[in-house]
Here is the input.
Amino acid sequence: MSDRSSVFTSRRGALRVLGAVGALVSSLAIGAGSARATKPEDVFKGKIIITKERLPAHFSSEGAFVSALRSKQTDKIWPKEEKDADHGTWVLEYVGFFARPLNDNEIELKFFEVTHGEKRFVASDHQYTRDKGVRVFGANITLEKPEFDVNKRYMMNMESGGRVIATTTFWLRGKGAQYSGKVEFSDSETKQK
Here is the structure.
């Protein structure tokens, strides 16, 4: 990948990360008093949940957070902007859940195209958590053409220390290239048999 800025768009030129989920994760302590409450990081461990829209910054309980994730989860992302077949932008809101607390502040996001069963590397970028020991990381990212394309299935992995700690697959949807179906032949081509 020669030009990373064409893959991801952000203020820093590689990937847009918003910290609203950090406040959301902190707010989950509200529901920690209930002995029967199941922690979201245990329910979704090893998974990345992509949501249809940004989640609120606070929830009344851990159960409300789990419920919101389940109801807003999607695996089909429609473009935020699609000018023509060569220009498209998709925004993914996501939350990753880890089986064990992170031993580091760095997470690497890796994207693979897996539409036809083969795993083809597309792009990667490094992300940083505020604190070590977290089990939840969320943000949003903007994906762009030409590295990412319509009607393709992608795998998104979060890695730490070279091992996959959370994963998901999703489809990027959109119009794509449109063809008229009209074929024109030159005079010389029509005279040939």
Summary: Confidence is low (pLDDT under 50) at residues 1-37.
